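S2.1 Query sequence (Pyridine nucleotide-disulfide oxidoreductase)
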Amino acid sequence: MLAAAALAPAVDEVVVLERDELPDGPEHRRGLPQGRHAHLLMAGGLAAMEDLVPGVSMRKHLLAAGAHEISLSSGMVALSSEGWFRRWRHEGPRMITCSRALLDWVVRDVVTSRTRVEVRTGRVLGLTGTRGRVGGVRVARAAGEEELGADLVVDASGRGSRVVTWLAGLGLRGVRELVVDSGLVNATRVYRVPDGAERFPLTVVQADPYAGRPGRSGMVLPIEGDRWMVSLAGTRGGEPPADPDGFLRYTLDLPDPIVGRLISGAEPLTDVHVSHSTRNVRRYVEKVRHWPEGFVVLGDALATFNPAYGQGMSVAALGARALARELARTGPAAPGLARRVQRGAARPVDAAWAMAVSQDVRYPGARGGRPGVVEHVVGAYTRRMTKAATGSYAAAAALWDVTSLRTGPARLLRPDTVLATLGGSPLPPAAEPPLTPGERRTLRALDRTGV
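Output C-alpha cells follow.
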C-alpha cells in the first residue's frame, strides 16, 4: 500500500495485486506470517508514512483507531543485556504500538480512499518482458492465468517473494542472497488490560546476545481495544512453549520476572500463537550488474529481519519513500529509475541488517554467519554504548535515534556520542525496574506469582 501511495501521484493507474481476500476491518489474514505477534512502528518509519500521503496524518488516523504512542525515553520499562534503562523527562523518539491487523487496515483505508489505487485479488506467477526491461506480470486469477502489462512493476510481496526465481525466468541470475537464522521462535498471547493498569508502561525484557546461551525475551505491548499483546521470543535451544502454563513459566524464568508478574493476574483473550518465520534474509538486488528497467523490489521482498528488533515495517516505509522521491525527481519513464530506487532503498536496509545480524550471529546454534573481526569490534562498542545508555541521557538518545531509524549508524560515531560511550554511565546501575510508586502498587496488585 505504501508503494502504491508512492506511485499514485506520478502515473495514470496503480493496480495492487493481493493474494488474500482483504478484510473490511482490522482482522488477521493468512498472508501475514508474523501478523499475530508484536509490531513496533518506529519514528523513522512513521515519518516516511507521513510523507507518502500528503495532507493526511497517518499518525492521527492510527491514534484515532486505537493505537498507542509511546516515548522511548519515558514510556518504556526495558531491561537490556547491560541493565535497566532509566526513564527520562526529556522527550525522545516516539513509536506507535497496535496490532499488525489494525495498522494494515488504517494504511489501506487511507491510501485507497485518497489515491487512485485499485486492489485486485490475484497471485503473481512470474514476470513478463526481457532481461533489459520488465513489461508486466503473469497472474493466477479465479478464471485462469492472465498477463497484466505495466510500465513499472514493484515487488512488495513480502518474505515469501519468489523474486530470484522470477528474474531467472527472464535470464537474469546472480542475485546474492544471505540468510542468518538464530532459530528464533515467537509465542504471543493477548490479554485484557486489568483495571488500574491502563497506563502501565510498555515493558520489555531483552535477550542477551553476549551470555553464550540462547536468547530469551518477553514484552508486554499495549494495543487497541484495552488489550495487552504479550510476545515471547527465544533463539535455538531457548524457544518459548505454546501451552498456557508453559507460556507463563517462561515469562517468570526471564532475567527478570516482571512480564510474568504483570500477566499472572490478567485475563487471557486468545490462545498462544507460535511462529517460526523469523530468519534474516537479504537479497542484494542493488548489486546486480544489469538490473532491468521497470522493476523495483521493496520491503520484505528485499530484506526480512528477525522481528525481535522491530525494524521491518519502518524499513519498508523508508523504501517506499525512496521510490516516491525518485519518481518526483525524474519521473516514471527516466532511464535508470529502477536501479536508483534500489540503491536508495538499500541504505535503510543495510543499517537495519547490521543491527539485527550483528546480534543474531552470537546466539548458540545460529546459522548463516559467525562474528568476525568487524562484528567483534562493533559488538564491543555497541555493548559499551548500551551500558552507558543505562544511565547517560546522551548515550541513550543516540541509541534511540538509530534504533528508531530516525538517523543512520553514523550517529553512533559523532564526537558527543563517542565521549558519552567512553565516559560510561554517570549513575550507578539500577537494581530494579524504574517504576513510579503508583506503577509499583499496580504491579503488586496484579502479581499472583508470589515472586
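Residues 185-276+440-446 form a domain with the Alpha-Beta Plaits fold (CATH 3.30.70). The mean pLDDT is 94.
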